[in-house]
TrEMBL record:
Catalysis performed (reactions): ATP + (ribonucleotide)n-3'-hydroxyl + 5'-phospho-(ribonucleotide)m = (ribonucleotide)n+m + AMP + diphosphate
EC number of the protein: 6.5.1.3
GO biological process: response to reactive oxygen species; RNA repair
Name of this protein: RNA ligase 1
Organism encoding this protein: Engystomops pustulosus
Length: 126
């Protein structure tokens, strides 16, 4: 059974942020051809290419994965594509009995509930 989501880990080791992102949510744009030079250029020069890798889902069910390291490119990057996207925090904790422990990551994030930021890096936690 194929899951319609992929699990992404972003953030730093002290405060990692894990997200579920639907497959197909990101589309490769501005790729002139599916060859080595075009892929290198896309990974190095396009904002959408600031990712660890891509997965192609073929009609016959085959998957092809290409990571930056397969092309000899550096990872992790200081500024990735997902880190540059707007972020809204919606925890919905009012729907549950929850006693916030502000020493935990979730407790710190709960202080930011209903806040919006221009990009992920703008979320400052204690």
């Amino acid at each position: 059974m194929e899951t319609p989501f992929c699990f992404l880990g972003i953030g730093n080791k002290k405060n990692p942020i894990h997200l579920l992102v639907p497959h197909g949510a990101f589309v490769i744009k501005d790729l002139e051809a599916l060859d080595h030079n075009s892929l290198m250029s896309w990974f190095e020069h396009c904002q959408e290419g600031k990712v660890e890798g891509v997965v192609w889902h073929c009609k016959d069910g085959s998957l092809f994965k290409l990571h930056r390291h397969h092309l000899g490119l550096h990872w992790p990057l200081n500024d990735t594509n997902l880190n540059s996207k707007p972020v809204s925090i919606r925890l919905g904790l009012c729907n549950y009995e929850y006693e916030a422990d502000y020493g935990t990551f979730l407790g710190q994030l709960s202080k930011k509930d209903t806040c919006s930021y221009d990009r992920l890096k703008d979320i400052l936690l204690e």
